[in-house]
Amino acid sequence: MQVVQLNNVSLRYDSNKVLDEISVSVQEGEYVVILGASGCGKTSLLRMIAGLISPTSGSIFLTGRDVTRVAPRHRDVALVPQQAGVYPHWPIGRSIGMGVRGRLSRPEREQRIREAAKMVELESLLDRLPEQLSGGQLRRAAVAKAIASRASVRLLDEPLSAIDANLRYQIEKDLSRLHQQSPGVTIHVTHDGGEAMRLASRVAVIENGKIAQFDTPDQLRTRPATPGVASALGRSALITVPVTRIDGAWASKDGRKVAGPDAPTGSTSVLGYYEEDLKPLEAGQAPESSDHWIDHQRNATVNHDRIVWFLE
Ligand SMILES: Nc1ncnc2c1ncn2[C@@H]1O[C@H](COP(=O)(O)OP(=O)(O)OP(=O)(O)O)[C@@H](O)[C@H]1O
Q1: Tell me, what's the ipTM?
Q2: Which residue minimizes the CA distance to atom 25 of ligand 1?
Q3: Which of 104, 140, 190, 264 reaches 20 to 30 Å from 79, CA-CA?
Q4: 52 alpha carbon – ligand 1 mean position (Å)
Q5: What domains appear along the chain, each with residue ranges and CATH number?
Q6: What is the per-residue pLDDT across 94-131, written as a single tens digit (0 to 9) for each?
C-alpha cells in the first residue's frame, strides 16, 4: 500500500524555487531517508508532508487520501523537528503525552506514554524537565512523542545531528527497531550519507531541487546516477574526469584513453573515483594500463573496477 505519495510537488519561497516537480511514493513498512546538502529543501519537504507549509503546486496523498489542503492535526503524521520537539517548561512525560491522539481515558493515555518511553529507555525519567536531560535523551524523548502518537507517517528531521558518535550508533539501532515494531512508514532527513546507507530501505537524494535518485542503498553504492549522488553518499571526496567516446575507448581532454562501457562514438560521459581508492604511483609503473587509471595530479592510480561511470 502507498502510505505517502507526492505528485509533481514544487515549492517556492518568493522567487526562490526550492523543490521542483518532486514525485515520490513510499510503501507500507519502508524506512526512507532523504539525503541532500544543507539548504536543498529536506526540512521543507517534511514540513509539506506534515502540512505545516503548502506546496506551490502539486499534490500530497497519505494512505490514498488527498491531504494537500488538509490541516496538520487531521493528517495521520508525527513530526520530530530538528530542534527540541518537547516543551521546555514541562516534564518530558507531559510533552510525550501531547503526541497522543484520539480520545483516551487518563489511564490509557498514561499507559501509552509509558510504553513509548520504555521503547526509548526513558521510562524512569518522565518527570524530568528537558534541561535535566542530555542531548541524546532529549532526542529520544522527541522520538517517543512520535511513537506515542501511533501516526502511520513518522517524520524525523535530522534526529541524530549533534549527538556524539557512540550514542549515534545506539540511537540508529533504536530507530530501526522502533520502525520495525510500528506499522506505517518512517521518513528520516539527513545530510550524512553513512547514516542514510545504514538505516534506509530506500534513499532519496535531492540535488538541484529534484530527486536525483531514489533507490536501495545497494543500488546507490554500485550505480549512483550522478556525481552529486556519489558525493552525497559521504565516502571520501569524489574525483571526476570528463571523457568522450572515440575509436572504441573513452578519451580524456589530454588525449589519454581508458576502457569503459560501450557507447556510440562522440558520446560524452564522466568517470569518477573516490580519493580513498587511490594508491600511490610506484616508480617505474607502466604509465597506461587496461587495469588502472593514472591520476597524474595526485601521482596515484585507481583500479578500473573502482571507477564509477556516469553515462549521459
Ligand atoms: N520560511 C522560509 N522563507 C524563505 N526561505 C526559506 C524558508 N524556509 C527555508 N527557506 C530556504 O529554503 C531553502 C531550503 O531550506 P530547508 O530548511 O528546507 O533546507 P534543508 O535541506 O533542510 O537544510 P539543512 O540541512 O541546512 O537543515 C533554503 O535555501 C532556506 O534558506
Answers
A1: 0.96
A2: 38
A3: 104
A4: 14
A5: 2-225 (3.40.50.300), 238-311 (no CATH)
A6: 999 988 877 788 899 899 899 889 888 889 999 999 99
